[in-house]
C-alpha cells in the first residue's frame, strides 16, 4: 500500500475488505461508513450564525437494523492504529456502544467497555462473536435477546438522532433483561417524548410483557401536568391508534395498550374520582414517568403511592435534571442513568440552539427599595420600613413601576429586533403575570389593535382559554400570540421550537427549574431562521446559574466589559456567582410541582385578607418610577462561556490559553495534522480566521502571523513575504533536489502564497492545478526518491515557512 494513501484509501482498500472477510455485510444494516452523527455546533459569526465541524464516524457496525454494537476509527496507513483509540472510545461513549476499534489497516486495537480492557487483535471479530459478548455483558436471556433484536421503527425514513437511538436501545435492553427500575437523563429539548414512544413501540412490536400470559403489554405514560400527557397522546404516540386511552377519572378500560394520566387523576382527586382508576396492582407492565424529578419518586410524596401501587410493573424514569440536591431522591429510587445527554452536549453537537444573555438591571434591583416613613400601599396598608431586594419583589412587595420599567425595556428590545419574535416571560405568580401582560399591552397598543392576542397570559386560571393561546403560540405558522406571560405553568412540557426570547422576571431558585426554563428556547428550526435565542435576565438569575458547577460541568462565566463614559477606558470583570436568595422551588409545591391553582400568593405570600396560616401580607405600590441602569449583552461562545469581548480580544485570550507562547503555536502550526488540530480547536470556540482578518484590519496576513499578532502583538506578515523570506534565508530547501523535484516545491510554494498552508496537504495538493500536470502521485513522488522522501521534503518546506 502506498505510504501516501489517505484515510479514505485505507478504508476502501483494507478496512472494509477485512470487515467483510469476517462476516460483516457492506449494507446500512451492518456496515455504515462515514456516518455523520451531528450537524455541527451553531456558532455566532458576523451577520448571524454558522455551523461548526460535524462529527463523523468512519464506521458504525450494527448487529441488527436497530442494534448498533461497535464503532471503528480509521487512520491513514502511515499513522499508528493506536492514534485513533481515544477518538473511537469517545464516539462509542456518545453512541452508547460497548466496543470500540482503532485501525490503520494493518493493526487493530479493541476496547471492551464491559471489561475495561484494551487489546490488540489479529482481526475484527465476526458479528456473532461480538453479539455473544454483548449478550453476556448485558446478562440477556434468550427471551430478552428476541425482544432487543425485534425491529421497532414505525417510519424507517425518519431516523432517530444518535443519542435518541442510544437511549432507546439501552432502555429496551434493560427492560428485556428484567431490570425493574430504569433511568434516562436527557436535557430539555433533546426529545424525551419521542424516545419514550420508540421504547414503547419496540416493546409493543416484540410482544414484551412483564406479566405472564398477556398477549400485549399495557403501558402507562405518567406526568404531573395535563399538557405533558395531552401532547404525547395526540402526537408522538399516534401510531398506537385506537390503543390509546386517557385516564381522566373514574374507572379505566382494560382493553387498551397505552394509557396516559397525570398523578392527580390516578390519585383520585375530586369527589367522584376512583383511586388508581380502579385498576389492580398488576394492571400495567411498564410505567414511563416523564419529568420524574418533579416529585414522583420522593419517599414523602403522595405520588409515590402510584409507583408503589403498581410496583409489579417495570418503571422507567425520564428526567432533564442531573444528579444534585434537588434530584438526589430520584437517582436513589431509579438508580444510575443508563444514558445521559446534557445541555452542553446538545449545544456542542448542534442539535440545540446556543444563546445570548442580556442582563438588565433596574435601579430598584441595583440599590434596593425602601418605603417612605408611614407609606401606605394600594389597599391602605402601611408598608413595613425595610430594605426590599429583588427576591422580595412581587412576593412581598409588588412595585408597579418596576414591572412597567421591565415592560418598557422588553418593548424597546422587541421593536429593535422583531416585534413578532415568540417570547416567554416568566413572572413571580399569576398576579404578576397579569400585571406584566397589561403593561406590555398598553405599551404596544398599535400592535394590540391589529392583533388582540399579541400578548396573552397563560397560567392555570385561564383554563381552556389559556390552553388555546398556548396551542396557537406553539404553532410555528401562527404569528400570535407573540408573547406569553406565565409563572410556573410553562416551565416544562412546552414544545415551541420558534421561541426566540426567554425572559426572566423572577428569581429562579432551583437548578432543575432553571434548566427547564432555558430549555424553552433551545429548539432549533433552521427552516424558520431559528438557530439561537436570547435570555433577557431582569433578576441576575442567569448570571448565578451559569456560574454554578451543576450547570452541566464546568462553570460558565459571564464576562462584563464596562466603558467609562468620560475616559473611554474599558475594564473587564468576572461576575461572581450570586447567592441563591430565592425560596426553594420558587413557591412550587412538593418536588417543584405546582400546587393546585398555581395562584396569587404562591411562595408563602398572601394577598390582602389572606393573613391566616402564618403567611405574610403582600403590599402593592403603584407610585414611583423605575429606570434601567444596566443593559449588557453577552453571547455563548464556542468554549461554553458568555462573553462580551470583541473578536480580536476574544481571539487573543483563547490563543494564549491554548498556546502559552508563539513558539508553542509555531511548533503545532508547522505540521499539517497538528495545524488542522489548531484550526479545529479555534473553530470549536467560535473563532473564524477570515472574520478575524477583517476585524484586525489585516486581510492579507498569513493566518499564523495573524494569530500571533492579536495574541502577542508580533508584526503581521503576508504569505508572499513568508515565501520570499524562505527563498532568501534557506535556499537549501530547494537546491539539494534536482530540477524536477524543485519544480514540485516551487509549485507548492505558489499554492501556499495563493491559498495558505492548507494548500500544502498531501496527497490532495498533488492533484490540482499545475501539480496535476506533473503526473500522478507515484510519478511525483519518484522525483524525490519515493513517497517518504517527498513527505519529508514537504514537511521541511512547511516548517521552514514558519521558522523564525
TrEMBL record:
<dbReference type="InterPro" id="IPR050742">
    <property type="entry name" value="Helicase_Restrict-Modif_Enz"/>
</dbReference>
<dbReference type="InterPro" id="IPR014001">
    <property type="entry name" value="Helicase_ATP-bd"/>
</dbReference>
<feature type="domain" description="Helicase ATP-binding">
    <location>
        <begin position="173"/>
        <end position="340"/>
    </location>
</feature>
<dbReference type="Pfam" id="PF00271">
    <property type="entry name" value="Helicase_C"/>
</dbReference>
<feature type="compositionally biased region" description="Gly residues">
    <location>
        <begin position="586"/>
        <end position="611"/>
    </location>
</feature>
<dbReference type="InterPro" id="IPR001650">
    <property type="entry name" value="Helicase_C-like"/>
</dbReference>
<protein>
    <submittedName>
        <fullName>Type I restriction enzyme, R subunit</fullName>
    </submittedName>
</protein>
<dbReference type="Pfam" id="PF04851">
    <property type="entry name" value="ResIII"/>
</dbReference>
<dbReference type="InterPro" id="IPR013670">
    <property type="entry name" value="EcoEI_R_C_dom"/>
</dbReference>
<feature type="compositionally biased region" description="Acidic residues">
    <location>
        <begin position="573"/>
        <end position="583"/>
    </location>
</feature>
<dbReference type="GO" id="GO:0005829">
    <property type="term" value="C:cytosol"/>
</dbReference>
<dbReference type="GO" id="GO:0003677">
    <property type="term" value="F:DNA binding"/>
</dbReference>
<dbReference type="GO" id="GO:0006304">
    <property type="term" value="P:DNA modification"/>
</dbReference>
<dbReference type="GO" id="GO:0005524">
    <property type="term" value="F:ATP binding"/>
</dbReference>
<dbReference type="InterPro" id="IPR027417">
    <property type="entry name" value="P-loop_NTPase"/>
</dbReference>
<dbReference type="Pfam" id="PF08463">
    <property type="entry name" value="EcoEI_R_C"/>
</dbReference>
<dbReference type="GO" id="GO:0016787">
    <property type="term" value="F:hydrolase activity"/>
</dbReference>
<feature type="region of interest" description="Disordered">
    <location>
        <begin position="565"/>
        <end position="611"/>
    </location>
</feature>
<dbReference type="InterPro" id="IPR006935">
    <property type="entry name" value="Helicase/UvrB_N"/>
</dbReference>
Amino acid at each position: 500500500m502506498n505510504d501516501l494513501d489517505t484515510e479514505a484509501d485505507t478504508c476502501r482498500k483494507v478496512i472494509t475488505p477485512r470487515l467483510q472477510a469476517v462476516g460483516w455485510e457492506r449494507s446500512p444494516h451492518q456496515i455504515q461508513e462515514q456516518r455523520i452523527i451531528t450537524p455541527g455546533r451553531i456558532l455566532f459569526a458576523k451577520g448571524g450564525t454558522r455551523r461548526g465541524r460535524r462529527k463523523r464516524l468512519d464506521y458504525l457496525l450494527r448487529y441488527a437494523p436497530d442494534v448498533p454494537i461497535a464503532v471503528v476509527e480509521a487512520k491513514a496507513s502511515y499513522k499508528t492504529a493506536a492514534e485513533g483509540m481515544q477518538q473511537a472510545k469517545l464516539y462509542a461513549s456518545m453512541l452508547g456502544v460497548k466496543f470500540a476499534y482503532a485501525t490503520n489497516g494493518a493493526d487493530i486495537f479493541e476496547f471492551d467497555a464491559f471489561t475495561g480492557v484494551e487489546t490488540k487483535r489479529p482481526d475484527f471479530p465476526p458479528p456473532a462473536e461480538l453479539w455473544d459478548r454483548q449478550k453476556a455483558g448485558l446478562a440477556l436471556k434468550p427471551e430478552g435477546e428476541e425482544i432487543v433484536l425485534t425491529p421497532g421503527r414505525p417510519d424507517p425514513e425518519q431516523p432517530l438522532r444518535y443519542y435518541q437511538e442510544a437511549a432507546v436501545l439501552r432502555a429496551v435492553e434493560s427492560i428485556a433483561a428484567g431490570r425493574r427500575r430504569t433511568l434516562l437523563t436527557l436535557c430539555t429539548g433533546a426529545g424525551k417524548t419521542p424516545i419514550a414512544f420508540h421504547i414503547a413501540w419496540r416493546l409493543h412490536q416484540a410482544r414484551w410483557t412483564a406479566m405472564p400470559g398477556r398477549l400485549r403489554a399495557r403501558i402507562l405514560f405518567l406526568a404531573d401536568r395535563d399538557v405533558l400527557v395531552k401532547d404525547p397522546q395526540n402526537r408522538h404516540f399516534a401510531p398506537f391508534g385506537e390503543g390509546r386511552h386517557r385516564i381522566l377519572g373514574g374507572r379505566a378500560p382494560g382493553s387498551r395498550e397505552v394509557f396516559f394520566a397525570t398523578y392527580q387523576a390516578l390519585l383520585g382527586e375530586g369527589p367522584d374520582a376512583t383511586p388508581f382508576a380502579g385498576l389492580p396492582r398488576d394492571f400495567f407492565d411498564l410505567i414511563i414517568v416523564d419529568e420524574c424529578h418533579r416529585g414522583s419518586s420522593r419517599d414523602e410524596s403522595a405520588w409515590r403511592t402510584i409507583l408503589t401501587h403498581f410496583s409489579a410493573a417495570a418503571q422507567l424514569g425520564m428526567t432533564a435534571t442531573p444528579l444534585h440536591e434537588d434530584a438526589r431522591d430520584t437517582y436513589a429510587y431509579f438508580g444510575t442513568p443508563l444514558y445521559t445527554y446534557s445541555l452542553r452536549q446538545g449545544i456542542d453537537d448542534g442539535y440545540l440552539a446556543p444563546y445570548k444573555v442580556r442582563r438588565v438591571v433596574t435601579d430598584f434591583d441595583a440599590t434596593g427599595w425602601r418605603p417612605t416613613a408611614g407609606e401606605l400601599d394600594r389597599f391602605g396598608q402601611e408598608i413595613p420600613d425595610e430594605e426590599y431586594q429583588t427576591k422580595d419583589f412581587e412576593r412581598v412587595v409588588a412595585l408597579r413601576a418596576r414591572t412597567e420599567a421591565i415592560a418598557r425595556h422588553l418593548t424597546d428590545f422587541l421593536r429593535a429586533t422583531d416585534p413578532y419574535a415568540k417570547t416567554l416571560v416568566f413572572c413571580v405568580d399569576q398576579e404578576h403575570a397579569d400585571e406584566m401582560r397589561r403593561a406590555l399591552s398598553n405599551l404596544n397598543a398599535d400592535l394590540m389593535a391589529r392583533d388582540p392576542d399579541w400578548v396573552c397570559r397563560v397560567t392555570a386560571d385561564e383554563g381552556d382559554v389559556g390552553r388555546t393561546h398556548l396551542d396557537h403560540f406553539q404553532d410555528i405558522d401562527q404569528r400570535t400570540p407573540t408573547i406569553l406571560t406565565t409563572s410556573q405553568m410553562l416551565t416544562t412540557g412546552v414544545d415551541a421550537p420558534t421561541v426566540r426570547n426567554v425572559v426572566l422576571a423572577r428569581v429562579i431558585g432551583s437548578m432543575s427549574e432553571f434548566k427547564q426554563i432555558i430549555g424553552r428556547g433551545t429548539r432549533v428550526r433552521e427552516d424558520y431562521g431559528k438557530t439561537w435565542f436570547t435570555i433577557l435576565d431582569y433578576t441576575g438569575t442567569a448570571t448565578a446559574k451559569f456560574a454554578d458547577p451543576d450547570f452541566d460541568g464546568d462553570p460558565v462565566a459571564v464576562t462584563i466589559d464596562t466603558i467609562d463614559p468620560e475616559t473611554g477606558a474599558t475594564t473587564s470583570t468576572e461576575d461572581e456567582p450570586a447567592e441563591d436568595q430565592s425560596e426553594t422551588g420558587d413557591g412550587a409545591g412538593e418536588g417543584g410541582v405546582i400546587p393546585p391553582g398555581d395562584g396569587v400568593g404562591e411562595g408563602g405570600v398572601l394577598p390582602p385578607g389572606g393573613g391566616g396560616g402564618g403567611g405574610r401580607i403582600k403590599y402593592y405600590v403603584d407610585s414611583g418610577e423605575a429606570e434601567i441602569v444596566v443593559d449588557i449583552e453577552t453571547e455563548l461562545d464556542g468554549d461554553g462561556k458568555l462573553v462580551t469581548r470583541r473578536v480580536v480580544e476574544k481571539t487573543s485570550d483563547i490563543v494564549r490559553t491554548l498556546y502559552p507562547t508563539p513558539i508553542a503555536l509555531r511548533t503545532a502550526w508547522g505540521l499539517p495534522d497538528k495545524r488542522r488540530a489548531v484550526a479545529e480547536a479555534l473553530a470549536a470556540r467560535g473563532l473564524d480566521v477570515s472574520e478575524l482578518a477583517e476585524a484586525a484590519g489585516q486581510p492579507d496576513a498569513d493566518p499564523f502571523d495573524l494569530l500571533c499578532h492579536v495574541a502577542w502583538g508580533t508584526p503581521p506578515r503576508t504569505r508572499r513575504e513568508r515565501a520570499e523570506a524562505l527563498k532568501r534565508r534557506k535556499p537549501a530547501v530547494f537546491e539539494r533536489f534536482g530540477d524536477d523535484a524543485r519544480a514540485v516545491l516551487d509549485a507548492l510554494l505558489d499554492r501556499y502564497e495563493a491559498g495558505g498552508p492548507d494548500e500544502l496537504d498531501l496527497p490532495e495538493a498533488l492533484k490540482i492545478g499545475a501539480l496535476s500536470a506533473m503526473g500522478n502521485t507515484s510519478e511525483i513522488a519518484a522525483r524525490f526518491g519515493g513517497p517518504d522522501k517527498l513527505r519529508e521534503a514537504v514537511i521541511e518546506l512547511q516548517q521552514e515557512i514558519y521558522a523564525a
